[in-house]
């Protein structure tokens, strides 16, 4: 893999030509190290003063790939130099010393040393230092890739704009630095993207594993628990303390987020899109999703990667992030395997399933996931059933503030899927849109047509109704979760995750959603992104406007979590026959609140 | 004739190592020697002696001051040790370690005693190495020419 893009002239011969700066006040060592490094075909610059080295580094930024520095130098502590280099140049620094005391080495590492070599230093150790540069490159490449991923999304959006100028998806743009970081992390966990990138072995926090973890935490009490205790309690031999510590941290963040959410009550937050373009493609996606579901990763965001062509990407940095919104993460790896299977056209039913997954994933974040799948009876079951199912679920699930975020019932999902197979008809074209919104603000209007679920009246269910059928506004109360199921031929499932995100955010998202919807309306092929909240209304309006059109045939329904990235694959769309089903599921709700408030599900089926 | 010299040279080196004056680091240095730096080892050793003389002097002066500044002594000796290990001066390195132990325990007498010993080793090694390099020059460029590899 040519991931290294060194600016040095010998970039092609990496690691030959690695530009090394050696800093040591001992001239003897400088001479020896220089010789050794040269023998490794590195470009060596030596310096016997730390300050001089720092000046040199500042003067020739980008002039070095790595720094090797002695710890003890008269003019400046090697650790100090290390800090400067780390802060200013972000270069890998190797410390060296004749002293191997643990405390010293630890100090070096704490200050950011990527390695700590003991004198006398041997050739073989130096020969290997390129790895630090390489590692860094990999990380950078990953960052870039993830950014590219975002760009891709942007492009897709732009594509969407063709249909609808007005709105841009804000999703990615909204992402703050932190979120961005989350996204990156997600990518790390994902495989799909680039086979080239080197993956770290990561712990996959399966449902099972996480349950053990939660059990351990509960056992000790949340406040007193530490990674070590949990590790011991879990009794998983291959797990390291670091794994647990990291998981615990995420878990804590997740909990605190939940807490906040309760306080906020507002809304909706995340959305996810799952895009299913055509039968086959959809199938692929679905499969991927399903597969993914089985794996629960710690990763926050739900990064939904679509298999081959499928452009589904869900990024929920926010909500998911800490919570381990396992669902999304899962997507990545399993995909591949599934995809292969998907190829069968008939498996379209599967595709459905996939959607469900996506939904489920979303749900997972919310924590009610497992149930969600159940809800979807993608089967032709009348909408009404959905409603029934939905409500009970929500209530039962009651987005509990409870901590157990991650537990997914994968198994449940699977069964569902199977059942879904029945959907084989789906290929014809069904759009299923489920939207769950919990917003206090929105007023709910019962819609005659939609029966099963509750809607927020404000939303232009009307539009929906026109096409689809019954939307019911079940939720009397302010906050509600709405589920729309639109069952036109296409199936749309939109899941939303909850986030404590500020309204403004939502609005933007909503816009995006609107766009999407519009687009969908226009062309059946698209992803639907539904954002609830303020945006919701807009959405409705637009929907109304468009409703006359064939109705929703969102072939692709993509939900994005908070940051919602909506992907539309036009390509896919193009390929896909008109009748594709897309499923959109929206789930809005505050986990905590949901319990309190009746959840509304709406199902719209457009035939 | 030349071959003979090289053999003697090898023997000398071997005995230096066997007697504990030098360790593998010295061999490492010899391996670094190539056409570009045919006298690399000698250059390094020369550099070492030139630079470390300053340190020896510093330590000597510090040892004369009362009370003893052990932190300073330790710091100097740390440097000296780092330097000494660069040429594989094993005995010197050991003396350094000993000296630093004494610094840690605040044993001034131990420090002085060890330092005397260290200076002796320092000089002894210098002599042996000078002899060795002199011999090596006579033997001429060895490695590449004589070692069939």
Structure, explained:
The complex is a heterodimer of chains A (607) and B (149). Chain A is built from 23 helices and 12 strands. In chain A, strand 3, helix 3 and strand 4 form a beta-alpha-beta unit. Chain A has a 5-stranded parallel beta sheet, with helices on both faces. In chain A, strands 11-7-12 form a 3-stranded mixed beta sheet, sandwiched between helices. A two-stranded antiparallel sheet of chain A has the order 6-8. With 607 residues, chain A is of the alpha/beta class. Chain A is elongated, with a radius of gyration of 26 Å. The relative contact order of chain A is 0.13. Chain A has helices spanning 27-39, 50-59, 78-89, 102-110, 123-127, 130-163, 171-174, 177-189, 207-220, 227-234, 241-264, 279-294, 318-323, 326-342, 348-366, 371-375, 383-397, 410-421, 461-467, 503-522, 534-546, 570-575, 591-596; strands spanning 19-23, 43-47, 66-70, 93-97, 115-118, 270-273, 431-435, 494-497, 527-528, 556-557, 582-585, 602-606. Chain B is mainly alpha-helical and 149 residues long. Chain B has one domain: HPT domain (Four Helix Bundle (Hemerythrin (Met), subunit A), Up-down Bundle). In chain B, 81% of the residues lie in helices and 0% in strands. Chain B is built from 7 helices and no strands. Chain B has helices at 2-18, 24-32, 40-64, 70-86, 90-105, 108-139, 143-146. In chain B, helix 1 runs antiparallel to helix 6 and helix 5 (90-105) packs antiparallel against helix 6 (108-139). The longest helix of chain B has 32 residues, at 108-139. Chain B starts with a helix and ends with a helix. The relative contact order of chain B is 0.15. Chain A binds chain B through residues 25-29, 31-32, 35-36, 39, 70, 72, 97-99, 119-120, 122-123, and chain B through 25, 28-29, 31-32, 34, 37, 40, 43-44, 47-48, 51-52, 75, 78-79, 81-83, 85-88.
């Amino acid at each position: 893999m040519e991931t290294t893009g060194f600016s040095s002239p010998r970039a092609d011969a990496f690691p030959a030509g690695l530009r090394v700066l050696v800093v040591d006040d001992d001239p003897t060592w400088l001479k020896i190290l220089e010789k050794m490094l040269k023998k490794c075909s590195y470009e060596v610059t030596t310096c016997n003063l730390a300050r001089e080295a720092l000046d040199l580094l500042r003067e020739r930024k980008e002039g070095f790939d790595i720094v090797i520095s002695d710890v003890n130098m008269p003019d400046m502590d090697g650790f100090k130099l290390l800090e400067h280099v780390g802060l200013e140049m972000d270069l890998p620094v190797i410390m060296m010393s004749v002293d191997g005391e643990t405390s010293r080495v630890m100090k070096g590492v704490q200050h950011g040393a990527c390695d700590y070599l003991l004198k006398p230093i041997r050739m073989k150790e130096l020969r290997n230092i390129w790895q630090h540069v390489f590692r860094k490159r990999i990380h950078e490449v990953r960052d870039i890739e993830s950014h590219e991923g975002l760009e891709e999304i942007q492009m897709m959006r732009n594509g969407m704009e063709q249909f609808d100028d007005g709105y841009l998806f804000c999703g990615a743009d909204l992402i703050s630095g932190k979120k961005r970081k989350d996204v990156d992390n997600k990518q790390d966990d994902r495989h799909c993207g680039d086979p080239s990138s080197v993956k770290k072995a990561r712990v996959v926090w399966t449902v099972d594993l996480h349950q053990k973890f939660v059990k351990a935490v509960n056992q000790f009490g949340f406040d007193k628990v530490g990674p070590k205790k949990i590790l011991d309690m879990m009794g998983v031999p291959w797990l390291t303390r670091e794994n647990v510590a990291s998981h615990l941290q995420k878990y804590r963040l997740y909990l605190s987020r939940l807490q906040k959410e309760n306080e906020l009550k507002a809304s909706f937050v995340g959305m996810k899109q799952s895009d299913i373009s055509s039968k086959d493609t959809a199938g692929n996606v679905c499969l991927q999703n399903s597969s993914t579901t089985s794996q629960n990763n710690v990763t926050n965001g739900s990064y939904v990667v679509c298999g081959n062509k499928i452009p589904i990407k869900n990024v929920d940095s926010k909500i998911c992030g800490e919570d381990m919104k396992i669902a999304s993460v899962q997507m990545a790896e399993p995909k591949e395997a599934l995809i292969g299977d998907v190829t069968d056209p008939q498996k379209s039913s599967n595709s459905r399933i996939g959607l469900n997954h996506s939904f489920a994933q979303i749900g997972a974040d919310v924590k009610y996931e497992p149930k969600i799948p159940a809800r979807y009876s993608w089967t032709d079951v009348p909408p009404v059933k959905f409603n029934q199912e939905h409500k009970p679920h929500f209530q039962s699930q009651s987005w509990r503030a409870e901590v157990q975020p991650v537990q997914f019932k994968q198994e449940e999902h699977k069964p569902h899927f199977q059942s879904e197979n029945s959907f084989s008809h789906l290929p014809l074209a069904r759009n299923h849109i489920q939207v769950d919104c919990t917003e206090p603000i929105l007023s709910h209007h019962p819609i005659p047509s939609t029966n099963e679920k509750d809607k927020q009246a404000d939303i232009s269910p009307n539009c929906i109704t026109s096409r689809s059928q019954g939307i019911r506004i079940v939720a009397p109360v302010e906050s509600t979760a709405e589920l729309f199921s639109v069952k036109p031929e296409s199936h749309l499932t939109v899941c939303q995750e909850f986030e404590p995100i500020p309204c403004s955010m939502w609005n933007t998202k909503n816009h995006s959603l609107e766009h999407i919807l519009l687009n969908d309306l226009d062309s059946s092929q698209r992803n639907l992104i539904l954002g609830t909240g303020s945006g919701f209304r807009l959405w409705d309006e637009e929907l109304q406007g468009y409703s006359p059109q064939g109705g929703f045939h969102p072939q692709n329904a993509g939900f994005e979590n908070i940051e919602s990235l909506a992907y539309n694959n036009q390509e896919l769309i193009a390929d896909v026959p008109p009748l594709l089903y897309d499923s959109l599921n929206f789930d809005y709700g505050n986990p905590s609140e949901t319990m309190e408030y009746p959840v509304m599900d709406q199902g719209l089926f457009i035939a | 004739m030349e071959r003979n010299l090289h053999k003697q040279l090898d023997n000398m080196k071997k005995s230096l190592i066997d007697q504990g004056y030098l360790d593998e680091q010295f061999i490492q240095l010899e391996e670094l020697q190539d056409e570009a730096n045919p006298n690399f080892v000698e250059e390094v050793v020369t550099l070492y002696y030139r630079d470390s003389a300053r340190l020896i002097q510093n330590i000597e002066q510090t040892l004369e001051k009362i009370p003893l500044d052990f932190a300073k002594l330790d710091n100097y000796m740390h440097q000296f040790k780092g330097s000494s290990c660069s040429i594989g001066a094993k005995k010197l390195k050991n003396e350094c370690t000993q000296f630093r132990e004494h610094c840690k325990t605040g044993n001034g007498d131990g420090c002085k005693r060890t330092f005397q010993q260290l200076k002796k080793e320092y000089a002894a090694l210098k002599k042996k190495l000078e002899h060795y390099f002199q011999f090596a020059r006579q033997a001429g460029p060895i490695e590449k020419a004589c070692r069939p590899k």
